[in-house]
Amino acid sequence: MPVRRSIAGIDSPEALAEAMRAAQYIADEGLSTAAYLALALGKPLLLEGAPGVGKTEAAKALSAVLGREMVRLQAYEGLDASAAMYEWNFPRQMLAIRQAGDAYVNLYGDDFLIARPMLLALQRPRERLLLIDEIDRSDHEFEAFLLEFLSDFSLSIPERGTIRASEPPVVVLTSNRTRELHEALRRRCVYHWIGYPDPQLEAQIVMMRASSVARDTAHRVVAAVGKLRAEPLAKPPGVAETVEWAEAATLLNAQGAPWPTAFARAIGVALKDQDDLAFVAPRLDRILQGAA
């Protein structure tokens, strides 16, 4: 497959980072480079990182930049080919047989084929971006099945034959690393690890995503979130929680709650686990020091 220097007018990692910023996503040099190379080489992009660091949002931003519909396949334990690829509309086939009587009916025509995300991506590779979200939630059998798809970008339908994409579709896989992915899957992808953003970048994200939040508030909530992430929590707050916490506290403050009380009252927006809330409660005043 030839290397493409320009994709949808994007001819460098810097240009991609700028376009993603216009799509309300701030990509650092590592992410923009990995994403650009995946597009140029026609390879899937594998994004790993803790929950809430912006992996799915990165896929959404790429979809917006490329002007493609995002087709999302949410992985889960027990995910099988029928949910990921296609299935036949059995009730409609039965109805067609009854209505046809003795006439011939092609039961495997397009009218009876229900395309699922992977097939949808192959059918229109220039118009769609396939997001396979949280691939680590699927079982090993589905991961093995995925290898063929990611190698050849084709699917075999016994009744129809092999369907192959006219060009490699844009595919983004995300993983929260709840388990190790197979090495063969990694080899087929361009890999990038997304960590928590540094405080300066996270404050920029807050101000970009929540226009009602003041600069000082953004920096203070980011500092508090940094302290929360340093605690041994089951579910530390992600970037989305940082943005929402800043918005929620700003709303309460506008209604009369003083700082840092507004942050404390909105803590349920940042932490969403009862054990975490109970653990943090006696430490919250210390964590919020400086958030006034």
TrEMBL record:
Residues 41-198 form the AAA+ ATPase domain. It holds the Pfam family AAA_5. Gene3D superfamilies: P-loop containing nucleotide triphosphate hydrolases (3.40.50.300). CDD domains: AAA. This is ATPase. It comes from Roseomonas fluvialis.
